[in-house]
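pls read this stuff:
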Amino acid sequence: MIYKNVMELKNSIGGILDLADDLTPKVIDEAELKSRVFEDIIETALFNEESGVRDLCNALIRSIAKDLGAFPASIQGVYEAMGRGEAKGFTVPAINVRGMTHIFAETVFKAAMKLNVGPFIFEIARSEIGYTNQRPSEFSAMICAGAVNAGYKGPIFIQGDHFQVKPAAYKSNPEAEIGELKNLIYEAVEAEFYNIDVDSSTLVDLDKNEISEQQRENYENCAILTEFIREVEPHNVTVSVGGEIGEVGKKNSTLEELEAFMEGYNNSLTAELKGISKISVQTGTSHGGVVLPDGSIADVTLDLETLGALSTTAREKYGMSGAVQHGASTLPDEVFNRFPEVGASEIHLATGFQNQIFDHPALPAELRDKIYAHLAEVNGDERKEEWTDEQFYYKTRKKGFGPFKREFWELDPEIKESIFADLQETFEFLFRKLNVENTRDITDKFITEV
């Protein structure tokens, strides 16, 4: 049920939540909350036509989560410990969530609780915010809703992934494009995204002779955006900021590029300000993998040796947690244990989970066909002449989550249960492979609620 207005919402939660203190809730009856009204609050946050009511419900969900012991947090403390060598031997999974977000998050939390996992991240990229129709306030609220439904208590790491400079827009009007990113960062921090990946690697110019000049616009803009984050972060929170030296899917990164970026970045950053805690690199992967004409994913040559060397230098020379691997969810299963072995600090996972949803036998064929028909009509101009249908739908179906948010919501509960039971097995597999099983003591030690 969607609450029509604030008064209807307040009337429904009487005796369940105490809203006496400026709508900062105290949960009186957790069982009644979950069984009777919480799903309605979530639905209202997603689908009420009035933005004010949606915003109120999003804030209410986050506040409920905090009152029940689950709180948005920065992973900075863990990453600083990794830089000092006090936490090691694992790679933090960063999971992009594109659809059915609160159920997806609930499933991740259940897997994490089962395996006693400490550090794991939920994230959404600048591009995903658009095509999944999830503004930061909604996204963080749905992650927190998943925590409430799972009964999770502890830190929730919510991350802005690839807050990326668009090169064409930057070339046309640099100040306007950086201004757009600042607006997005402000909106995200206000929604309690306390982890932000700045991606100005799109500005790297490999045509220049000197590596430092190739990286100049990258490190200068990363420093500008880092300083803005420090201006807008809460006074008692140090947002974990990431940088990037090589655009994913392009040329593999080198130690020389890492050093050139970091030297330029540190010299550009105002003295005494906290800098980045990790560095994203390119080692041979691409976002979503390379899809072949039959719809299968091509094998990739993954340069784990370089990833290890970059991670070691990032830690030992610059005090960061290590290097970050993007575009990894479609890699073969046997590869994942290698990331903690080479010291990668973080790994980004997205498309593989999307594939499990769209290709799951429980997903109704009529919904899939409806989404594909929409993509053919609305996104047909993205199709390359040589693509088969399999390649086109594989590359564009991520854009089906936003327009069909209501249809995914209305799926039969048994269908969603079947899909997410299999996804939970995947999360548990990845948590074990990335060696974050039984790491809860690490977040308990280095992360505190503020």
